[in-house]
Amino acid sequence: MDKFFSSFAEKASFLAGTPLAFICAISFVGIWAITGPLSGYSPGWQMAIGSLPSIITFLLVFLIQNSQNRETRALQLKLNELIRATRGAHTMMVNLEKLTEAELKIMCDEYEILAQEARRRLACGQTDQHVPEISLLPEASSK
Asked: What angle do helix axes 2-16 and 19-39 make, rounded to 10 degrees?
């Protein structure tokens, strides 16, 4: 069931983003507008433009979210592999998405300091390719 849903969600979200899907949506609105005078602007006619797109959007949200979750997970795994395979990289950077907001804030602050130092070095005519060690230790979280 999970494999079927994933496959269906991937295909549906791909199709939802095609020009054909946009043409279908425009056609629906056009047909709806043309049939308004023919139906005397009946409540059923009004409900068609209000309900049908809402239902389709509601369902598409879940399908697109499923596809996006898989794509994000795959991207994270690829990045994790690049970090793992790069000499000198901090392997503690793998799976950062599992950290708390406070832990991520500490790491962002550390990298901001590195960026400021690199900009300062560039302003002095030096290279920004210096790779200083960073102190991303657990005790840093007590700041």
From this structure: 70
Q: Which residue's structure tokens are 């433009």? A: 49
Q: Kindly state the tokens that stand for 114.
A: 């590195």
Mind listing the pLDDT tens digit for each residue in 5-64? 888 988 998 899 999 999 999 999 999 999 999 989 999 888 888 898 999 999 999 998
Radius of gyration of the chain (CA): 26
Other residues' Cβ atoms within 10 Å of the Cβ of residue 118: 17
- CA–CA distance, 75 with 68 (Å, rounded to integer): 10
Lookup result for tokens 């879940």: 62
Q: Which residue has the tokens 């797109």?
A: 53
- From residue 22, alpha-carbon distances to 13, 56, 114, 123 in Å are 13, 13, 45, 49
Question: CA-to-CA distance for 77 and 70, rounded, in angstroms?
Answer: 11
Residue 67 CB neighbours (<10 A): 19
Do 16 and 64 touch, CB atoms closer than 8 A? yes
Q: How many CB atoms lie within 10 A of CB 79?
A: 15
